[in-house]
Design brief:
Chain lengths: 404, 212
């Protein structure tokens, strides 16, 4: 959230020229206002519109950038002239200087770290039914294929277009200003701001919901009304926005550093628990909580204790420790802390959802997804009347097989 | 908990109609434990054939299962606006036989007892009363079933006539029904799939599919 606030402030500062503190105040104010007033529905709708603006804006910058450098091949060659190693995944100093611990850590961060983002998981939980997840997976894959490569390519080409860029974190903003006509700059800046805002608002709302439902209602006032719950959530959103503003204006760290570190901790703390919740029937509450605590503490101690420098192993690697913690604690506490019956039922339901070949997936009736039979509810009353022939299978569990 | 309360008269846009028919409050304690098991119009062989066609041939075996629904007949009375037959709302999906049987003044709404979703239906409500586990019809989301049916029909009417009509809607007593579906296990070559085939229209949902 802090990184989104800082990025929003810096972006607005660059666009408008107003001082960073004021720019960030405006950015946070707008985000808080619509989160505060609209809640999750406002966040969902604004995220949808922002996603469209993001794709259009980033593709526009990418096209402008490629035209400016003379195409993909010319851009590639121009980067190679600066340093051929920049075109490899090993970094500017080449293969010999690779710190494998950091490379593996980066791979983990950008592959599974994303799964730990609470706002992303809440979006998944908001889906009405599994069929929505299938459709959403197609849409999100299409969106990511269009959107994600663009800022990476623009960032690489910034080495050519803006060789004297003071702050690398402003590369996309800087390139946009350079390659686009004035009228377009405002539009694509809105796209970048949209990306920042859509993440910040979701995180803010998530914080408010955790405070009101998971903490306040659970531990402080279980009989609180919906109205009180909403106000606890709103006050939390406001408090965290103010806190974020103070930290960002007094000791603003680099955006990339904050994003990487936050993703690392979210990944190590939550990914083992999320994955086990879906795939492992023995994962229990004690194991999940232990894993989250270990997954939070270890990377912080690792980073602040200087172990990253000392061992050249990224703190993200501690996801292995949090995963092992989950396994060991879950197995050790199976008797004292059994998996609740309703969770086991959900896991049985989840088993029914399998990969569907394309020719089968086409033309399904989504309404039927809500009518999946549960074993104990399959009714087998005797058939009478005109349904006799059709009901044979219901009476006889070993229904006839008909071969072609 | 789905607890269908006694159906009451619901007004759409416009004034209420004095003397309008009212449905009596049913005895849900006993009614909920007996359900009308509907007869499927898709036969076992047809369900298996649908599954075989989807996976490209092979073997298939169908088992009849039932899903708990509430069936609510909703009648409408126009108080302002053009004449209409409420049964037009499902005309696209109805068969000529259904249309002939319908008097045009009511429309049938099916409310899923589990998920609470509702749909305007052309399903023929024919079948036999069978004992049904009470909880099968009592474990869904907790709003009034008759109200859900009324809201769905009101939405459909407003979508059709916009603000050009005032109407009163009268949901009848919800009736517990068991809608038939076929669970078809099919196998062809290295592909095994389990399909849920609708017992009335033959549409399907893939429950599971795997390569052997």
């Amino acid at each position: 959230m802090l990184s989104q606030f800082i990025a929003g402030g810096q972006g607005l500062e660059m666009i408008t020229g107003i001082p960073f503190q004021w720019a960030m105040l405006v950015a946070i104010g707008v985000i808080v206002l619509y989160t505060f007033l609209g809640g999750y529905l406002a966040v969902a709708y604004t995220d949808f519109v922002q996603a469209i603006v993001m794709v259009i804006g980033m593709l526009w910058i990418l096209i402008g950038t490629l035209i400016a450098v003379g195409g993909l091949t010319a851009g590639n060659e121009a980067v190679a002239e600066i340093n051929p190693n920049l075109l490899t995944m090993w970094g500017p100093e080449g293969f010999e200087s690779v710190k494998w611990g950091l490379v593996i850590g980066a791979l983990l961060i950008f592959s599974i770290g994303y799964m730990g983002y609470p706002h992303v998981n809440v979006s998944h939980m908001a889906m009405k039914k599994p069929s929505v997840a299938r459709t959403a997976a197609l849409y999100s894959t299409g969106f990511n294929l269009l959107f994600v490569p663009a800022p990476y390519l623009v960032g690489v080409m910034a080495l050519v277009l803006l060789p004297n860029l003071a702050n690398p974190e402003m590369a996309v903003f800087g390139v946009a200003e350079l390659v686009l006509p004035n009228f377009a700059v405002g539009i694509v800046m809105a796209a970048i701001m949209a990306a920042i805002m859509s993440t910040a608002d979701a995180l803010l709302l998530q914080t408010g919901t955790i405070a009101s439902h998971d903490l306040f209602k659970r531990f402080i006032n279980p009989s609180m009304t919906e109205k009180q719950s909403v106000w606890v959530s709103r006050i939390t959103v406001l408090a965290f926005a103010i806190l974020g503003y103070i930290i960002a204006t007094t000791r603003a760290p680099g955006i990339a550093d904050v994003v990487l570190f936050a993703t690392t901790i979210l990944g190590t703390a939550f990914v083992p628990a999320y994955v086990a919740a879906v795939w492992w029937k023995k994962a229990n509450t004690a194991g999940a909580i232990a894993s989250m605590i270990v997954g939070t503490i270890v990377p912080i101690v690792w980073e602040l204790g200087g172990l990253t420098e000392l061992t050249s192993v990224d703190p993200m690697a501690s996801v292995v420790i949090s995963a092992l913690t989950l396994i060991v604690v879950s197995l050790a506490t199976q008797k004292a802390n059994p998996v609740p019956a309703h969770i086991r039922e959900v896991l049985v339901e989840t088993d029914k959802v399998g990969p569907i070949p394309a020719r089968l997936a086409m033309g399904q009736n989504n309404v039927l997804a809500a009518q999946l039979p549960v074993a104990e509810e399959q009714l087998s009353a005797p058939a009478t009347g005109s349904a006799a022939s059709e009901s044979t299978a219901a009476d006889d569990p070993h229904a006839r097989k008909s071969d072609e | 908990m789905s607890s269908p309360k006694s159906p009451r008269r619901h007004a759409g846009q416009g004034a209420s109609a004095p003397g309008a028919p009212r449905a009596e409050a049913p005895d849900w304690q006993s009614a909920a434990c007996t359900a009308l098991r509907l007869n499927p119009t898709i036969t076992q062989f047809e369900a298996e054939d649908i599954a075989r066609r989807k996976i490209g041939g092979g073997a298939a075996a169908a088992t009849l299962v039932h899903h708990p629904f509430w069936s609510v007949d909703v009648s409408a009375r126009r108080t302002r606006g053009p004449r209409f037959r409420i049964s037009e709302l499902w005309r696209e999906r109805s068969t000529p036989q259904h249309e002939a049987e319908s008097d045009g003044s009511t429309v049938s709404v099916m409310v899923d007892a589990k998920s609470g979703t509702s749909l305007i239906s052309s399903i023929p409500i024919n079948g036999v009363d069978v004992p049904s586990p009470c909880q099968a019809h009592m474990s869904g989301p907790g709003t009034n079933t008759a109200d859900k049916a009324r809201q769905l029909v009101a939405t459909a009417l407003r979508k059709r006539f916009r603000l050009g009509m005032n109407f009163d809607l009268f949901p009848a007593e919800p009736r517990a029904v068991l809608k038939p579906n076929w669970v078809v296990e099919a196998r062809h070559g290295r592909l095994a799939a389990t399909l849920l085939v609708d017992g009335f229209d033959g549409s399907y949902w893939v429950m599971n599919a795997e390569k052997l």
